[in-house]
Amino acid sequence: MKVTGYLSVFCLLIGISMPSFSEPATQSSVKQLMQKVGAGDMSVQMMNQMIPALKQMIPDAPEKFWTDFVSELDAGEMEDLIIPVYQKYLTEEDVVAINSFYDSPAGMKLISVQPKIMQESMIIGQQWGQEIAARVIAKYQAQQTMENNKSGQLKSE
């Protein structure tokens, strides 16, 4: 009785003291998560939104180049490239729980309104950036005016 009791306590202590290692997220569960939230589609949409800026960087490219570029965009390919990033930060347990959330009514609602939230947030962010730029420009111009006034006074003295 004593030996089995000690053995049970020993096994319990070993089990408690050993760190718990969660298994890494599987490709299939991450792919399922990414498809639920439309991660690949959002990436393609972002690339499409970047095309005007890319056109400015490559102004001599013919329109056929951009048509071919867009035709090469593949949400599934993008998802496959990003899966390892999810696996780096999330365990299988995490991904299963997140997928369960997205299957709930609240999760489905979040998925449905997320594009609108992102779109409105981007507009707010752009406006905010423009306001900051205007404040900094005004501050810089005021500084320049003060420096010019000081140098003008030094010359007249």
Task: Write up this protein.
- This protein is an all-alpha fold.
- The protein has one domain (24-148).
- The protein has seven helices and no strands.
- It has helices spanning 2-17, 27-37, 39-57, 63-72, 75-89, 92-103, 105-156.
- The longest helix is centred in the C-terminal third of the chain and has 52 residues, at 105-156.
Instruction: Please work out how many helical segments DSSP would assign.
Output: 7
Mean pLDDT: 85
Which sheet architecture does the biggest sheet show?
A: none
Large-scale geometry: elongated
The termini sit apart by: 104 Å
Q: Number of folding domains?
A: 1
Helix content: over 70%
- The count of β-strands is 0
Order of helices and strands: HHHHHHH
Strand content: under 5%
What's the topology here?
Elements: H1 2-17, H2 27-37, H3 39-57, H4 63-72, H5 75-89, H6 92-103, H7 105-156
Helix pairs in contact: 2-5, 2-6, 3-5, 6-7
List descriptors.
single chain, 157 residues, mainly alpha, 0% strand
In short:
This protein has 157 residues and is mainly α.
